[in-house]
């Protein structure tokens, strides 16, 4: 158990819909990262927040957005969903940016039908 | 960040040492080598990291060649629970944000 929690564990929704994935980092960790893992793309970095502020962006689509709240939990919002958005979405946390270890949550499996 | 090359798959007999190679010929002087693993759709898990000296912890050993162009992760006594995808990543320590995970090596430990 990494100490990072993600909800929900599974999510099934239809194309065109919007969903919100939630992540609670390890106690004391200020940095939160979101990754997407699909069968054909592997594990891809989406976005990072540090203490409430966006720190880095990766291959995140404009239909996707995220935020980190004052209590340090983070939400990833996915809108206008397409079949290709079906994937595992992982959240990871670390004490600070660049720390050698990122602690990954169990992931949210999103299925778009 | 430098690119890494790993074999797509490997097998190892249970109880034997698993040696997973990684090439990073374009690594720069301040880039560390990190190893993570992912067990069947779980979140990736940190294993070990190092700069140029060999490193050992309770999970594994990391051997980095003198020219730093390649490294080997050693699991000394592989168990069935070590079956996973192993990712070798190079990154500057304490800078940069995300890890870039490549395709990794799928290790299967055989009973």
Note down, in words, how this protein is organized.
The complex is a heterodimer of chains A (113) and B (111). In chain A, a hairpin with an 8-residue loop joins strand 9 and strand 10 (103-104). Chain A is mainly β. The relative contact order of chain A is 0.34. Chain A is 0% helix and 53% strand. Chain B has a 5-stranded mixed sheet, with no helix packed on it. Chain B has a 4-stranded antiparallel sheet with strand order 2-7-6-5, with no helix packed on it. Chain B is mainly beta. Chain B is 0% helix and 47% strand. In chain B, strand 3 and strand 4 (45-50) form a beta hairpin. Chain B contains no helices and 9 strands. Chain B has strands spanning 9-13, 18-23, 31-38, 45-50, 55-56, 61-64, 70-75, 84-92, 105-110. Classes of the chains: A mainly beta (113), B mainly beta (111).
Q: What about the largest sheet of chain A?
A: 7 strands, mixed
In one word, what is the shape of chain A?
A: globular
Distance between the termini of chain A: 31 Å
Q: How many alpha or pi helices of chain B? A: 0
Sketch the topology of chain A as an H/E string, one letter per element. EEEEEEEEEEE
Mean pLDDT, all residues of chain A: 94
Q: Total number of β-strand segments of chain A?
A: 11
Percent helix among the residues of chain A? under 10%
Q: Unreliable segments of chain B (pLDDT under 50, ≥5 consecutive)?
A: none
Radius of gyration of chain B, CA atoms, in whole angstroms:
13 Å
Mean pLDDT of chain B, to the nearest integer, reads 91
What percent strand of chain B? over 45%
From N to C, what is the helix and strand string of chain B? EEEEEEEEE
Specify the structural class of chain A: mainly beta
Roughly what fraction of the amino acids of chain A lie in strands? over 45%
Biggest interface, chains and residues, is: A-B, 27 and 23 residues
How do the strands and helices of this protein lay out in sequence?
The complex is a heterodimer of chains A (113) and B (111).
Chain A: E1 5-7, E2 10-13, E3 19-24, E4 31-38, E5 42-50, E6 53-57, E7 64-68, E8 74-78, E9 87-94, E10 103-104, E11 108-112
Parallel strand pairs in A: 2-11
Antiparallel strand pairs in A: 1-3, 3-8, 4-5, 4-9, 5-6, 7-8, 9-10, 9-11
Chain B: E1 9-13, E2 18-23, E3 31-38, E4 45-50, E5 55-56, E6 61-64, E7 70-75, E8 84-92, E9 105-110
């Amino acid at each position: 158990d990494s100490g990072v929690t993600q909800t929900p564990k599974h999510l099934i929704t239809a194309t065109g819909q919007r969903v919100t994935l939630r992540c609670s980092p390890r106690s004391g960790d200020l940095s939160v990262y979101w990754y997407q893992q699909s069968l054909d793309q592997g594990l891809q970095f989406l976005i990072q927040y540090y203490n409430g502020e966006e720190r880095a962006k990766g291959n995140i689509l404009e239909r996707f957005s995220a935020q980190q709240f004052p209590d340090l939990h983070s939400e990833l919002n996915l809108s206008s969903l397409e079949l290709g958005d079906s994937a595992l979405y992982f959240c990871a946390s670390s004490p600070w940016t660049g720390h050698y270890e990122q602690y990954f949550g169990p992931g949210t499996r999103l299925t778009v039908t | 960040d430098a690119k890494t090359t790993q074999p797509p798959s490997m097998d190892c007999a249970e109880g034997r040492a698993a040696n997973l190679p990684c090439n990073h010929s374009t690594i720069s002087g301040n880039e560390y080598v990190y190893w993570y693993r992912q067990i069947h759709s779980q979140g990736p898990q940190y294993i070990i990291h190092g700069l140029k000296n060999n490193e050992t912890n309770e999970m594994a050993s990391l051997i980095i060649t003198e020219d730093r162009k390649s490294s080997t992760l050693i699991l000394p006594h592989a168990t069935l629970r070590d079956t996973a995808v192993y990712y070798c990543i190079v990154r500057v320590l304490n800078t940069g944000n995300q890890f870039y995970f490549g395709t990794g090596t799928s290790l299967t430990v055989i009973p």
